[in-house]
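Pilot study result, target chain (222 residues):
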Amino acid sequence: MIIALTLSTNAQASSDFQIWVPININAQFSEQLRGFLELQSRIGDNASNFTTAIVRPSLGWALNKQATLWVGYLMQADSVTPDSDTYLIENRAWQGFTWKDTANEKQFIWEVRNRLEERFLAQNSDPSIRWRTRFRIEQLIPDWSSWSVIASEEIFVNLNDNAKNANLQAGAQQNRLYMGVGYRFAPEVQMETGYLYQYVWRNPPSVDQNNNVWMTNLNLNF
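Predicted structure:
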């Protein structure tokens, strides 16, 4: 379905090659209380200019070993143009629910992550409400359990219209498909790297955005 939607959209979609580097810090404060901090930088304009910085802290409450409720904040700075030193700031509140489980003697790991976001964007007085769902799987390589193969699919949907921004209307907003490999240096430290295909739907006169991204994650667990 996602492939069909992508192929049926504007053939004049603009494209870009980007590099994303998220650093994800997970902390367990008690049996139920969790903490999370993401620091992410993005280099766009065909990997020639620093275009985005993201800070995303949150707190979680584990309902059981699989399910966790989250509440968090995000600050995102996006350059006005790819080569600009002027940045627009987005403030975002969000609430989430994750379910993470294993199978095949913990060699197969899967996770469903849901987030509801209230986005406070520059030059928009009303918040843009967005829902996003990601399904992620990780398969450890037999006899090489430090290595794994990872894939994920995430869809973003705007839930309300915004009178001041034609690209913030209700409906599918973007899709992200990722495939990569991971290496665990220690139980607390894992690095992932791979290819992410991002497609962003836009309304005329804007054209759709078609991004090819090389993403490298550093995951720290305490």
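One observation from the pilot: The longest helix spans residues 2-7. A full batch analysis is planned for the follow-on phase.
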